[in-house]
């Protein structure tokens, strides 16, 4: 698996798996556009968007190399982010189930707090 970050002549930055190259074209799989979103004074957060609509397990796209400005191998953190984002996009039911599990866990953790007996007085 060769996950790479590609800067396109359109200004977009995509992270994708490069599956084949020829002299003039590059075949990529499941491309995501990535942007850095700045909120307030924070350093920013990386946000991924489906670059093209994704409906299949394998969303292959051929790009002319003349549209590439730059390309680099993705870091381990970007690769992990990419894999999770693709999994969430292609398998939204899994994301829903994880969110439901998180809600159930939160309910279990907050239930003792909400139902705690706070009528007693504590003396130090």
Percent of residues in helices comes to: 25-40%
Number of helices: 2
The gyration radius over C-alpha positions equals 22 Å
Q: Give the overall pLDDT as a whole number.
A: 81
Task: Work out the count of structural domains.
Answer: 1
Shape estimate: globular
What top-tier CATH class fits best?
Mainly Beta
Low-confidence runs (pLDDT<50, min 5 residues)?
A: none
- The appropriate CATH architecture is Roll
Q: Look up the CATH topology.
A: SH3 type barrels
Structural class: alpha+beta
Euclidean distance between termini CA atoms: 61 Å
Order of helices and strands: EEEEEEHH
Number of strands: 6
Major beta-sheet overview: 6 strands, antiparallel
The fraction of residues assigned to DSSP E strands is 35-45%
Detailed description of the structure:
The protein is an alpha+beta fold and 124 residues long. The protein has one domain (3-114): SH3 type barrels (Roll), CATH 2.30.30.100. 31% of the residues lie in helices and 36% in strands. The chain is built from two helices and six strands, in the order E-E-E-E-E-E-H-H. The protein has helices at residues 76-90, 92-114, and strands at 3-8, 13-21, 25-37, 45-50, 60-64, 68-73. Strands 1, 2, 3, 4, 5 and 6 form a six-stranded antiparallel β-sheet that branches. A hairpin with a 7-residue loop joins strand 3 and strand 4. Helix 1 packs across helix 2. The radius of gyration is 22 Å and the shape is globular. The model has no long low-confidence stretch (mean pLDDT 81).
